[in-house]
Amino acid sequence: MHVIFPAGPDDAQALAQVHVTSWRETYRGLLPDSFLDRMSVPVNARRFSKSLVTPSEHEITLAAADRHGLVGYLAGGPSRTRVAGEAEVTTLYVLRPHQGYDLGRRLLTAAARVFADQGAKSLMISVLRDNIPARGFYEHLGGEADAPRKEPGPGGLMYEVSYRWADIGVLTR
Questions:
Q1: Which of 9, 19, 142, 152 has the least C-beta neighbours within 10 A?
Q2: What mean pLDDT do residues 78-89 have?
């Protein structure tokens, strides 16, 4: 059984652990090993702590936990492209042993409801072009892919694909 709840400052360390672990699970072979190996839980915990103490307007972080602790999270806010009425999920990670239990969809649905309550009409998320499992997940949930685009990232330029739900209600029903 998993519960989803708004993350608070006391969750920063656990969120950082999920972040670093999930990046290493997800991006091995897609990002340089040297970058993944250098990722730091303490550095990420400070970043989470700061964003949870003083979030930007309409910024959310939802955590997912089982009886043993945090196993996933989602963060997002207004679209970086400043499209009026569009929210953006900037991160969505579930630790590998907890995937396949509908937790990613539940996090995305919960976030879509919060964003819709804040006035968002559409939602987007970006993913590495070569992250085929994540792309399949977003397509299964009805996300429509934009053309791949080059973005700077660890180790140089990489390709990302944005998925959009023009009607956020598709995710909240």
A1: 152
A2: 94
